[in-house]
Amino acid sequence: MSAFRLGLTGSIGMGKSTTAALFAEAGVPVWDADAAVHRLYAKGGAAVAAVAEICPTAHLAGAIDRGALRAWIAAEPGALARLEAVVHPLVAADRAGFVADATADLVVLDIPLLFEKGSEGEMEATLLVTAPAAVQRARVMARPGMTEAQFALILARQMPDAEKRARATHIVETLSLAQTRAYVEALIAHLRSHHA
Q1: 53 to 37, 49, 77, 85, 130: CA distances (angstroms)
Q2: Same domain, yes or no, for 115 and 194?
Q3: How many domains does the chain have?
Q4: Same-domain pairing of 41 and 118
Q5: Ordered DSSP codes for 88-116
Q6: Is 18:177 a contact under the CB 8 Å cutoff?
Q7: Together in a domain, 95 and 42
Q8: Are residues 196 and 114 in the same domain?
Q9: Which of 7, 67, 162, 163 is a good FRET partner for 129, with 20 to 30 A between their CA atoms?
């Protein structure tokens, strides 16, 4: 029997990484989309040659320089779409490999742009990590080097939280670590009992 796929998502500053770590702590295998991209861009990674072909300036010492990639995306209209066309199939293959190799009954797939990219159809259920807007802003602005302009740009790329709430199967508000941990443990038990 294949593992139950729970898609984990949430906008920047909502507590998604912390929530993913709580699932891992509870023994649930977690696949991280951002970590997969890092692997693909690292020396010997599956995306290096293809990305270097469309953006030669990002090719550095056999790996992809993310800073150079960001500069190219900012400077050239259509660059992001070209990059995504190359990288998304490789990320999807990495995710499929993780799910196929999983021996657990439940896996968490941590995908920041889950709803934006329409990937929720590949999940049995979704969990949205959220927090009030003021809490989100305070968390994000506390990050080193973050500016109001960067924050606005990130928010513009992400679907509004209210829309994500309407689409999610499950929702956790991350106001305290203890409350979030209790929710995660209860959700794991719920999913296991209903999908055994």
Answers
A1: 17, 6, 17, 13, 38
A2: yes
A3: 2
A4: no
A5: HHHHHHHHHHHHHH--SSEEEEE-TTTTT
A6: yes
A7: yes
A8: yes
A9: 67
Look up the pTM and report it: 0.89
Residue 88 CA to residue 53 CA, distance in Å, equals 16
- For the chain, 196 residues long, give each residue's pLDDT as a single digit of tens: 578 999 999 999 999 999 999 999 999 999 999 999 999 999 999 999 999 999 999 999 999 999 999 899 889 989 989 999 999 999 999 999 999 998 899 999 999 889 988 899 999 999 999 999 999 999 999 999 999 998 998 888 889 999 999 999 999 999 999 999 999 999 999 999 887 6
State how far the Cα of 8 lies from the Cα of 125, in Å rounded to an integer.
Answer: 9
Let me know whether 38 and 24 are in one domain.
no
Both 4 and 90 in one domain: the answer is: no
- Distance CA(151)–CA(116), nearest Å, equals 17
Residue type, 83: L
Separation CA 195–CA 30 (nearest Å): 18
